[in-house]
Amino acid sequence: MRKLTTTGGSSIAAISNNKFLESYSLNNCLKVYKNLVIIDECFSSKSPSLATIIREKGHQFSEGFLSAWLINLNEILNLNKPMTETQIILCVSEILSNYNSLKIADLTLLFKRIMAGEFGEFYESISIPKVLTFFRTYNEERMNRAYEINNAKHLEHKSNDPMNISKNVKRIWKGTPSS
């Protein structure tokens, strides 16, 4: 997978707003992350989260950035009743408030899934409740997957823990069945 590059590997705060918008536009991300298919790949992505963008670029910039993504989605879906400008503004506000932990890689995967119809039919329209349902569903899936990964790591670490091994040996030595 190609990486999104920035000038000189500097933090996003040092990148000009125009360069940032160019690098992280929906169209560019769809190209860069064309092979992105599972949430696990988003966790390891070096792309910034919405919270990072808000912190380093400001709230107004972040609203404009995410608005551009929703406007592009409106155009790509080619629906009879796309979201209005007011709906996009309200939707962006909700997304930034409730889903700012999502990375740009997550947004790309989510938008790819929306465009592929994985969240159901649009019936020629898109609305704030539909978009927020997509985000809520994706975020729940993401949180569940993060829990599964962390739980698996915990169990692996626990099974490799010398203290656990010695407890098991003592239990076996005493003839006590393991639980």
Keywords:
179 residues; mainly alpha; 65% helix; globular
The biggest sheet, with number of strands, parallel, antiparallel or mixed sense and barrel status, is: none
CA-atom Rg in angstroms: 21 Å
The parts where pLDDT drops under 50 for at least 5 residues are 1-10
Question: What is the total tally of β strands?
Answer: 0
Helix-strand layout with pairing:
Blueprint: H1 17-23, H2 26-32, H3 39-43, H4 50-57, H5 59-77, H6 85-98, H7 104-115, H8 128-159, H9 162-173
How would you characterize the overall build of this protein?
The protein is an all-alpha fold and 179 residues long. It contains nine helices and no strands. The chain has helices at residues 17-23, 26-32, 39-43, 50-57, 59-77, 85-98, 104-115, 128-159, 162-173. Helix 5 packs across helix 6 (85-98). The longest helix is centred in the C-terminal third of the chain and has 32 residues, at 128-159. It is globular, with a radius of gyration of 21 Å. The protein starts with 16 loop residues before the first helix and ends in a 6-residue tail after the last helix. Residues 1-10 have low confidence and may be disordered.
